[in-house]
Amino acid sequence: MARRRSFGAIRRLPSKRYQASYAGPDLQRHTGPITFSSAADAETWLVDERRLIESGGWTPPARRAALAAAPAPEPLTLESFATVWLNDLELRPATRRDYDSLLKNHISAPLGAVLVSDVTKPLVRAWWNGLDASKPRARSKAFQLLHNVMAGAVELEIIDTNPVVLPRRTRIRTKRAKKIEPLTVSQLNHLANAMPPRLHMAVLACRR
Questions:
Q1: Domain 78-206 CATH assignment equals 1.10.150
Q2: Rounded to an integer, what distance in angstroms lies between the CA atom of residue 111 and that of residue 119?
Q3: Cα(86)–Cα(148) distance, rounded to whole angstroms?
């Protein structure tokens, strides 16, 4: 028989364990995700639930349990993000081929497996120094592409700042073939939906 209380109810089951439940702000009855070995443990759960309601941080316990059980999103690598980011841009065929070649030959091999969140200024400097200095145009275009990719990660709030910055004396100034506009809200959502299933949540989980 359930015990009458000012908040919630505790019921002893035939198994001799205790079940706690209460009526939530949504006017639905919510039952504890587990049964308890003692009435005191059931009481503690009800007290915690009431505090969540009073603080305004309450969500249905079943939803919280589902989120806690969900697998954590796989870390987002630079190659995975750059590939999807480029696929979402509207580019001329020649420009797309150029970008794909730069990504494959100059960025993915040394940096592709690095997590987007782990790309740092020292790492970018080391990558820059490792590029073939006898091919300044390709080197500069690869730098600009990496800068734009990481700017996309900033736009999606995956990272806070763009680490692809080099001292002015080492930069090679070239005219950009095309100005890349920031993605719209619709494009951002499309980018998240275009992620492989194992990475779909990575973009959303990192957004503030």
A1: yes
A2: 8
A3: 10
